[in-house]
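// run 5 | inverse folding | seed 20
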């Protein structure tokens, strides 16, 4: 193809041969001096063998791979990518009578680093995390239209919040196709949630907790439940709908609590108190009050540098919860920090249990659902991990 070439140093081809989709700048032996951020490039080994096609970005991850097959990156390429992602979700029946929200495209897991598309009952929300993807948005948009057909009402670009500052200044959020009229409500396992992708946070709705919320329901009948970092109240709705005697939702943001309260009402659920407070402060002076506690904090570590502090924060949080949970209580505890891998997380939880002298049993190890696919070639993609613990 006629794309600028990047030649790797000797022996640096192995990671691409194992289908890991990143090329670090240190692996590059030779490249065009004028390469622009976002430009499509082909990567070759030192022996001049074609390895992969990707887009260039000046940082420490210099190229993100979007194809291991030498082909033009054109409308047909994007059609194939989007079709494959949609077909996969259709085969798995992820959109069905009870659920009309899912992640339609999950970055590396679906073969394009930096491309996230969420599907909210007919509305596709696109988030480009890198300039290379953003430059392709017209092709991506056409592909979504063509693949989804009647299943599509609108496409909204929300990339201004996910691109780096330097790039986001050049973009504005807005509809690329169609429109949204009135309020949007989606259904997840039969439960209703209000979605405001235009004014809502960067992550409008945490689609990745769908299966874990469903599991929570199994343990909540007649129980006193505490859902911390509750945001839209996903876990609270499932707990209350499953017959919890009472649910408390805690989030530091008042607007999150308002949204949580709204979603409880939307599902005709009572027995709920929304509390706008820092979770750490809330937990400090409670004792023996809850049968079931959910800890689903935001990513405490966003980079390797903050890993140590993050681990300490996970430990502190879990110690607080384990100290106050009732005897034979059930704790759902999560981490969505990519840099804290599951084994480090499990060890952190163990050390929290040891510190408060409570015996635990692991009922479940949890992860992300299939619309956030993990491939063995890219283990970094497995970011969500959780444990369900029986606390004696
Ligand atoms: N569990 C949620 C997702 C959590 S997102 C779900 O299932 O959808 C993280 C949430 O934590 C955000 O709403 C944010 O406002 C809240 N948050 C961040 N720091 C907090 C803190 N220290 N105490 C309470 N809430 C906090």
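// decoded
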């Amino acid at each position: 193809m006629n794309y600028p070439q990047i030649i790797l140093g000797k022996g640096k081809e192995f990671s691409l041969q194992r289908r890991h989709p990143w090329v670090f700048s240190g692996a590059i032996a030779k490249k065009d001096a004028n390469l622009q951020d976002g430009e499509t490039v082909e990567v070759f080994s030192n022996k001049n063998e074609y390895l992969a096609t990707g887009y260039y970005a000046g940082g420490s991850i210099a190229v993100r791979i979007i194809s291991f097959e030498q082909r033009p990156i054109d409308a047909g390429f994007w059609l194939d990518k989007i079709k494959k992602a949609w077909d996969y979700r259709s085969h798995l029946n992820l959109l069905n009578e009870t659920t009309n929200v899912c992640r339609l495209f999950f970055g590396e897991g679906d073969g394009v680093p930096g491309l996230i598309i969420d599907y909210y009952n007919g509305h596709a929300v696109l988030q480009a995390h890198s300039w290379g993807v953003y430059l392709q948005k017209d092709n991506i948009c056409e592909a979504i239209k063509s693949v989804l057909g009647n299943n599509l009402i609108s496409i909204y670009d929300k990339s201004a919040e996910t691109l780096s500052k330097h790039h986001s200044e050049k973009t504005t959020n807005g509809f690329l196709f169609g429109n949204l009229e009135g309020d949007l409500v989606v259904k997840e396992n039969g439960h209703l949630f209000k979605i405001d992708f235009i004014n809502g946070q960067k992550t409008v709705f945490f689609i990745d907790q769908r299966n874990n919320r469903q599991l929570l329901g199994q343990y909540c009948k007649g129980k006193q439940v505490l859902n911390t970092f509750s945001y839209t109240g996903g876990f609270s709705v499932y707990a209350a709908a499953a017959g919890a005697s009472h649910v408390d939702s805690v989030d530091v943001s008042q607007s999150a609590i308002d949204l949580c309260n709204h979603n409880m009402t939307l599902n005709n659920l009572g027995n709920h108190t929304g509390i706008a407070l820092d979770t750490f402060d809330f937990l400090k002076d409670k004792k023996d009050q809850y049968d079931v506690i959910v800890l689903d904090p935001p990513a405490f570590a966003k980079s390797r540098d903050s890993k140590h502090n993050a681990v300490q924060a996970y430990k502190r949080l879990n110690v607080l919860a384990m100290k106050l949970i009732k005897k034979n209580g059930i704790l759902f505890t999560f981490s969505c920090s990519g840099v804290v891998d599951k084994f480090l997380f499990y060890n952190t939880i163990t050390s929290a249990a040891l510190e408060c002298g409570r015996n635990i049993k692991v009922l479940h190890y949890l992860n992300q659902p299939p619309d956030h696919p993990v491939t063995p070639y890219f283990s970094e993609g497995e970011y969500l991990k959780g444990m369900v613990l029986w606390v004696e």
